[in-house]
């Protein structure tokens, strides 16, 4: 029996996809790969095939509905960090749960959060500049910006925010950790969230946790565990994208020389953010695993119920069939239909929030620190090797 290729494939740059993905995309058909845990999966690399998998009800996210045991889910972690959350549900439960959260993340509501986010960014840069050059952009800016925004939204006390960061790091680690240990972290986090929810019952608030608790008490439409799991999903999705992509984006912009171009013309920030989202792969395994629910043909391959599928977003976002000069990063690119936030039913609920935060972060940096530069050679920047989501451990910068 032919040995399946190990995925993710090795790459010569932390933020550029492996050249092997371009070869597979040129071949067209999905290929079977093996990840660190679970059963093999089909890897999808073409843009149109990716959109099909991400939007068709034939490809579900509920492994139990597909008849797949938890320990057979193809992935980089021994336990799915999204289990029992909105990210792992299919309709009708997904539709019901998403409705409760969507109103918090509508484009209009997110725009109302922009001024507050700008104030947070300004305070963080004040502190970083005040401490002097050089500084670590990850600890000084990239991590605290989104954690303050999402915790303000949720209503998490300032003193407890460090615990959320630690839990997120734990759940997204790809290190060889016992499943029981991961489960203990999830239980600890859920216990903390249950305490916050109990406080909201005694003392109602207008934050997101308070709103979800009201739905549970007054409308009897949410269970206690559902409230906890919704908040956990929002922490992971609402915090990690921005926390990781801010240092990722700045690293790539400084390396390419495009940072100075944006500093000279901050009006490029919106298109630059979209192009960086297209070009910078975030999830190391490509996407969340999908499960085939009924027989279907995709790219000339017959997929059967119980098969597992991974969409390699980085490859799909560099498909020349969808993007002119797809391998060139053009920070002025217009009409950018990337699928960095997914597509269809499970498109990232926090996409508007992440986009706004990334725009605010980049605008604040190029305005306040137009001469920003790496404080060490690019090759000496340390990267997290065992993490579901890519980002540097630290990003030393100077100005």
Automatic annotation (TrEMBL):
<dbReference type="InterPro" id="IPR002397">
    <property type="entry name" value="Cyt_P450_B"/>
</dbReference>
<dbReference type="GO" id="GO:0004497">
    <property type="term" value="F:monooxygenase activity"/>
</dbReference>
<dbReference type="InterPro" id="IPR017972">
    <property type="entry name" value="Cyt_P450_CS"/>
</dbReference>
<protein>
    <submittedName>
        <fullName>Cytochrome P450-like enzyme</fullName>
        <ecNumber>1.14.-.-</ecNumber>
    </submittedName>
</protein>
<comment type="similarity">
    <text>Belongs to the cytochrome P450 family.</text>
</comment>
<dbReference type="InterPro" id="IPR036396">
    <property type="entry name" value="Cyt_P450_sf"/>
</dbReference>
<keyword id="KW-0560">Oxidoreductase</keyword>
<dbReference type="GO" id="GO:0005506">
    <property type="term" value="F:iron ion binding"/>
</dbReference>
<dbReference type="GO" id="GO:0016705">
    <property type="term" value="F:oxidoreductase activity, acting on paired donors, with incorporation or reduction of molecular oxygen"/>
</dbReference>
<keyword id="KW-0503">Monooxygenase</keyword>
<dbReference type="GO" id="GO:0020037">
    <property type="term" value="F:heme binding"/>
</dbReference>
<keyword id="KW-0408">Iron</keyword>
<dbReference type="InterPro" id="IPR001128">
    <property type="entry name" value="Cyt_P450"/>
</dbReference>
<keyword id="KW-0349">Heme</keyword>
<dbReference type="Pfam" id="PF00067">
    <property type="entry name" value="p450"/>
</dbReference>
<keyword id="KW-0479">Metal-binding</keyword>
């Amino acid at each position: 029996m032919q040995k399946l290729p190990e995925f993710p494939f090795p790459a010569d740059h932390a933020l550029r996809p492996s050249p092997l993905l371009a070869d597979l995309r040129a071949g067209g058909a999905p290929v079977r790969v093996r990840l660190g845990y679970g059963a093999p999966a089909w890897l999808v690399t073409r843009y149109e095939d990716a959109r099909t998998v991400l939007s068709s009800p034939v490809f579900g996210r509920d492994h139990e509905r597909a008849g797949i045991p938890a320990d057979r889910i193809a992935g980089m972690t021994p336990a799915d960090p999204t289990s029992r959350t909105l990210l792992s549900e299919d309709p009708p439960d997904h539709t019901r749960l998403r409705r409760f959260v969507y109103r918090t993340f509508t484009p209009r509501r997110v725009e109302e959060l922009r001024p507050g986010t700008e104030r947070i960014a300004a305070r963080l840069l004040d502190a970083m500049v005040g401490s002097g050059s050089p500084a670590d952009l990850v600890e000084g800016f990239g991590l605290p910006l989104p954690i303050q925004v999402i915790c303000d939204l949720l209503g998490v006390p300032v003193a407890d925010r460090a615990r959320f960061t630690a839990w997120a790091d734990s759940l997204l680690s790809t290190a060889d950790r016992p499943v029981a240990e991961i489960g203990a972290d999830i239980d600890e986090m859920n216990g903390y969230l249950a305490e916050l929810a109990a406080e909201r019952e005694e003392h109602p608030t207008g934050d997101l946790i308070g709103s979800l608790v009201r739905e549970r008490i007054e409308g009897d439409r949410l269970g206690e565990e559902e409230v906890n799991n919704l908040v956990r999903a929002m922490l992971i999705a609402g915090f990690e994208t921005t926390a990781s992509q801010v240092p990722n984006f700045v690293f790539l912009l400084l390396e390419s020389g495009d940072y100075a171009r944006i500093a000279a013309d901050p009006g490029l920030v919106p298109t630059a953010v979209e192009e960086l989202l297209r070009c910078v792969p975030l999830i190391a395994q490509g996407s969340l695993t999908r499960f085939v629910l009924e027989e279907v043909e995709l790219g000339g391959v017959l997929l059967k119920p119980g098969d597992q599928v991974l969409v390699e977003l980085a490859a799909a976002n560099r498909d020349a069939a969808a993007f002119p000069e797809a391998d060139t990063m053009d920070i002025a690119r217009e009409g950018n239909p990337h699928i960095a936030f997914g597509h269809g039913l499970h498109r990232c609920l926090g996409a508007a929030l992440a986009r706004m935060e990334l725009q605010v972060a980049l605008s604040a940096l190029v305005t306040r620190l137009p001469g920003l530069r790496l404080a060490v050679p690019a090759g000496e920047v340390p990267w997290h090797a065992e993490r579901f989501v890519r980002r540097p451990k630290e990003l030393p910068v100077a100005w």
